[in-house]
User: Fold this.
Amino acid sequence: MDIIISNKTSKPIYEQIIQQMKQLIMDGVLKPGEQILSMRALARELHVSVITVQKAYETLQKDGFIETISGKGSYVSDHNINFIQEEHLRKVEGHIEEAVMIAKQNGIEEEKLLKLVNLFYNND
Amino acid sequence: MNGLIYKDLKGALNAMKPIYILLSIAFYVFIIVRGGANSEIISSFSASWLVGMLSFLIVYGDEKSKWNKFEMILPLSKEKIVGSKYLLQLSVVPLSVLFTFLICTLSSILFVPVNHFVYTALLTLSFMIPLISGSVMFPLSIKLGTKVTRIVLMFFIYPILKLATAFQDGTFSPEIIQQNQHYLILGILLSVALYGLSYFISVKLYKRKL
Amino acid sequence: MTSDYTKTIELNGISKQYKKFKLKGCTFDVPKGRIVGFIGANGAGKTTIINAILGLIKVDSGELKIFGTDYKANQSYIRENTAVVFDEYLFPENMTPSEQDLMFSKIYKHWNSRYFNSTLQRFKIPTDQKTGQFSRGMKMILSIIIAIAQDPLLIVMDEPTTGLDIGNRSDAIDLFLEFIQDEAKTIFFSSHMINDLEQIADYIILINNGEIIFSEEKDRLLENYGILKCGKSEFENINPKDYVNYRNSSVNCDLLVSNKEKTKWQYPDFLLEDASLEDILLFYIKGEL
Assistant:
C-alpha cells in the first residue's frame, strides 16, 4: 500500500489520506476484502496523529470504501462497486457543474456545451 | 527492594577499585607494623568506622546523581525503600567484625597476642559502631541531606578516638572489661534496638516529595 | 482496578502557590490511547504540572485522577503502571545496561527484559559499558527504553528530546509511535521540539504563566488558526474580538486568528496564512496581549 502525504500543501492530511485510499481502492490496487493497515499502524508509518488517520478511516467507512471491525482490523469493503461508481459520478457532476458555471458566466449557450459533450464521447 | 540492594551493592563494588583496596590494606598493615602492640586498638576502631561509612557513601552518591528523584516514583513502599538502605548497612557489620578479627590476628602474630578481654571488647564495638553510625546517619541524611550528616558524623571521630585511647592508656584495662562484660552484651542489644528505632523514624521522615 | 477509564489523566482546578510563580486552576484531560503534547515557555509551569501529576509536589487545591481513580487513593497501582522520563539522566552512572536490566527486573513487576535487550541492540547501545560514558543522546534513548520496558499504561515525559540531535529525536519518535500502537497506552509529554509534536501529537495543551490556555486536537489547531497580515496603519481597523494576539513591527502587523474560515470572509482583502504550532505558541508567549 503506497500512501504519500505532503505537509506542504494546504490540503489537510486526513483528506489526502482519504483521497489516496479511495484511489487505491478504485484502481484495484487494494482488493475487496483485503486487510489494510490499522489506524494506529498507518499513523505510525506516516508519522501523523492517530486522530488524523481515525478521521480519514471514519470518512472512508461512511462512504463505504472500508470497514473497521473492532478487535480485528480494517478491511477494504466487499461491496464497493456501487460506491466506486457513485464516486465517479460525483466527480463528473462536479466537473459538469463547473463547466456550466464558466459557460454561463461567459455567455456560452447550453447547446454548444452539449455538443462538446457529444464530441468527447464519440471521439475514441 | 532486592533491586535497590542490588543497585547499591553493584555501586559499591564498582566504586571499589582494586587499587583502593590494596592501598587500604597496605595502610592498615603499615599502621600495625609501625605502631606495635596496642596499635590494633586504634586500627580496629578506624576500620569499623570506615566500613560503617559505606552506606553514607551510597546515600551521598544517590543524592549527587539525582537518583533520589527517581526513587520517589518507584513502585515500592517507603518501608521497602528505606529498608533496603538499612539492610545494606547491616551487611557491613560482619565486614567490620571481620576486619577487627584480621587486625587483631595480625597484631597477635607480629607482637603480643591481644588480651582476650580486650579482644572481646573490640569485636563487640566493631559490631556496634556501624549500627550506631547507621542509626544516626540515615534519619539525618533523609531529613537534612548528606552535607549536614557528614559534619555530624565527623563529630563521632572524637569520641571514638577517646574510646581508643581509653583502651590504650589503661582506663579500660582487661580487668575492668572482665568485670563489666555484661555491658558488652547490653551494648549489643542497645545498638540493635537503636537501629530498629532509627528505621521507624527514617520511614516516618522519608518524603516522596520534591 | 479496572481499565474502564477513558481519560488517563484528569486535572481539575489544580492550583499551587510558589513565591514567585503560581499555578492557577489548571484543568485538562489526557484521553486514553493518545499522544498529548504539552507546550509552553520555560517557567510557564510545565514541569510543575508534571511534578503534580507524578505526585512529587503537593498542590494547594484541585483534583487529580490517574487511570480514573483519585491519585491519593491508589498510589502504588498508579506508580506501578506509570513510567517517567525526565529531562536528565537519573540512573547510576557506574552501572551498565545489563546491570540495570537485572536491577529493574527486581523492581518492576512487568519488566520486559526481552524488549529492553532487543531494543538496545536495535539502537546499537552497548550493554556492557558503564552508562556514565554514554553520550547524552544515548542516555536519553536509554531512559526512554527503560520507561517502555516497564510495560506501563502511561508514560509521562518532561522534555525527553531536548538537546538531542536529529537522529536521536527520530529514534525517540519511533519508540513513542511503537509504544502507542497498543490502544491502552497513553503518552503525555512536554517538549520544546514543537515540530515533533506537530507530527505525532493527537492533542496539544498550552500553558502560559501558570494558566492552561488551550487543550485542543492538534489537527483542529492547525486547521483553524491562521495569521492575518496587515500594514501597521490598517491595524486599528481590525476588531480586537477577531484576533487572539498580535505582533507588531514598525511597518506591519501579524495577528493570530483562531477561526481562519470566518476571518477569510470577514477580512477578504488581507493576506491570511496558515499558522504552524510554533507560530501559535510564539504568539501566545511573545504577543502584545
Q: What stands out?
A: Residues 136-149 of chain C form the longest helix (14 residues). Chain C has a mean pLDDT of 92. Chain C is about 35% helix and 30% strand. Chain C touches chain B at residues 51, 54-58, 76, 79-80, 82, 84, 86, 88, 90-95, 99, 102-109, 130 (CB under 8 Å).
